[in-house]
Structure formats: C-alpha cells, structure tokens
Amino acid sequence: MQAGALKLETEATDGVLMVHVSGPLDSATYDQFKAFMDPIVAQSHVSIVLDCRKLTYVNSHAWTLLMHYHRAAMQELSDFIVAAFSSRLLKGIQRMGLGKYLTWSPTIEEALHPAFAS
Q: How far is it, in rounded angstroms, from Cα 1 to Cα 17?
C-alpha cells in the first residue's frame, strides 16, 4: 500500500456489516471515505462496525464525519460502532472528549457481541 493510500472493504458477519479501514483518514482520503460510507450509513436497520485496527491517522474533519455517521445511523434506527482504535488514536478520542459522541469498542469481538449494540 502506498503511503497516504486508504483501503476500504466490507464484509457481512453474523448480521453485521463490517467496514475494514486501512491507512490514514485525512484531507487526501476524506472524499474517498465519505463516498464509500455515505450509502452504507444511509441504510435503515443495519448494524455497522467500523474496523479501525489498521487506521493510522484521523484528522479533525474525519472525526466530525464519524460523529455525523453516528447521529445519522441513530436516525435510521441503525448501529454505528467504531472498534479497535490504536492506543494513539484512542488517546486522541479521550483527550478531545469524543467518546460521548461515538459508540466505540476497544475490540472487534466486543463490537460484534449482540449485547454491546445499544
């Protein structure tokens, strides 16, 4: 993968739509991510888990977009869970107080557990 490249893939797992994200989520990849995610989040009654294990960076515009997706999913009676942030990105979430605006899980396994979804 080239430096700065964003890779996105989906996978259906036990009634959950898993979106795997690899690379940075920055100004160069924002439009690509948004074009990929908008139709997914617009669906009603879907459980979406954003797999962030290979996400390397998130800029402020992308954080805002993730919070928007969380609100949009709630309006569509869907779940939008971001999971498995690196410790560096998790520190950013905590430092900025974003945990109250996102549903997030420390691991993919916990995000896939039916009791986790709100």
A: 24
